[in-house]
Specification:
The chain is α/β, with parallel strands linked by helices and 146 residues long. The protein has a single domain, classed as Cytidine Deaminase, domain 2. The protein has three helices and eight strands, in the order βαββαβαββββ. It is globular, with a radius of gyration of 15 Å. The two termini are 21 Å apart. It binds zinc ion. The site of zinc ion has 5 residues, from strand 4.
Length: 146
Amino acid sequence: MMQYELHLYEDDLPRLEQHAETCLPAEAVSLLFGVISRNIVLVNRVELMGNESKTSLTTFSVNPEREYQLLIEAEKRGDSLVGIFHSHPAPPEPSKTDLRNMHLNPVVWLISSKLTGTWITKAYILEEENAIEIPIKYRNSIDSDL
Ligand SMILES: [Zn+2]
């Protein structure tokens, strides 16, 4: 089976984790746009989003109009939605709700947690019925040939 990899710009992860820090105690959410080439999920743009969830601190939702606008803009650039980021008060692993949502949105799911004192971010894709962790790497010169 092909091993997927997530390739980010070097400042993407610090930006996402800073966003998660700012949103505490609520969960933070962001959308990642880019392209998928062979086994490489290449992130071209990270959009930090407001969490619109009114029901709980441990769920997240985004403004559908803002998401639609970002999807249209991404399409014009040749990008699509390739990842969804959110933070957890729990360990950085998909919850049961996340697993259900991964079926609905089968993109890379990035989850950050500060449970151990420092932010830890992990990336997952759904393979058959399981969330599989995939490596997060930094974009390099090879990526520009994709
Ligand atoms: Zn979650």
